[in-house]
Amino acid sequence: MVLDVDSTLIGEEVVDLLADAAGVGGEVAAITAAAMRGDLDFAGSLTRRVALLEGLPASVLEEVGARVTVTDGVPDLIAAIHGSGGVVGAVSGGFRQVLDPLAVELGLDRRHANDLEIAGGVLTGRLLGAIVDADEKRERLLRWAEELGADRTMAIGDGANDLLMMSAATLSVAFDAKPAVRAQADVCLPGRSLRPVIGLL
After folding, report:
1. Active site residues
2. Which of the four CATH numbers 3.40.50.1000, 3.40.50.1970, 3.90.1180.10, 3.30.360.10 does domain 2-11+70-200 have?
C-alpha cells in the first residue's frame, strides 16, 4: 500500500505550514491556486513556492514536523497491513525532512519525498534531485512492488498529483478527495479517517 502524505497520511499541507513560518502564506496560496486552475504544472508551482522559503532557518522544519497530525486510523491500518504480511510506503510531493521522522515513528517500510536544499543552517529556496510529481509517484509504486514481488497494490490519495499512481494500483482509494480523483478511484472515502481501509484489505 502506498499513501500520499499531505492531506492523506497527515491532515496538513507542509508547504503551507512552512510558508506561514516564513511570512509568505499569501504568496504561496496564490501559486497553489494558479496550479489548481491549471495555469502552472505541479513541478513549476512547487519550484516557485519553495523559492519563497529562501532564508528560512532549517530548525523550522522540526517545529513544523511537530505540528503535523497523523490522520485517524493510520497506526491501526499500518498494523493491519504488517499483520497480514504486507508493506506500507508513502510518497510525497512534500519534503523528506518532515516525512523521514514521521516514517520512523509510524513504522513505514518505504518512503520518498522532495529534498529541500539547506546551506549554512537555512533553506536555499531550491530542491535537490528530481521533483516528486505524478509520474514519480507512479514510478515509486511500480518499483517498490517489483522489488517486493508484490502482485497486489493499493494506492491512496486525494489530489490530481496522485491519479497516475492510483491508476497503476490494483485498488485505488480516493480519500477526502477532489472531484476528479473521486471520479476515477475504485473506492471513495468521504470522511477524515483511514480506518475503513482496513475493511478493504
Report:
1. 4, 6
2. 3.40.50.1000
Q: What is the pTM of this model?
A: 0.95
- Is residue 18 within a helix (H) or strand (E), and if so which, with residue range? helix 14-22
Q: How far is CA 61 from CA 10, 22, 135, in A?
A: 15, 11, 26
In this structure, what DSSP letter does residue 72 have? Answer: B
Nearest-CA neighbor of 110 among 80, 90, 81? 90
pLDDT the model gives residue 36: 66
The domain segmentation of the chain, as residue ranges, is: 2-11+70-200
Collapsing DSSP to helix, strand or coil, 135 comes out as helix
**Phi, psi (rounded to 5 degrees) for 172:** -110, 135
- CA-CA distances (angstroms) from residue 11 to 70, 144, 148, 169, 175? 6, 25, 29, 23, 11
166 CB-contact burial (10 Å; exposed 0-12 / middle 13-18 / buried 19+) = buried
Rounded to whole angstroms, what are the CA distances from 175 to 21, 155, 185, 198? 27, 10, 9, 14
DSSP state of 73: T
**pLDDT, tens digit, 9 for 90 and up, residues 34-75:** 876 768 888 999 999 999 999 999 999 999 999 999 999 999
Residue 110 burial (10 A CB sphere; 0-12, 13-18, 19+): middle
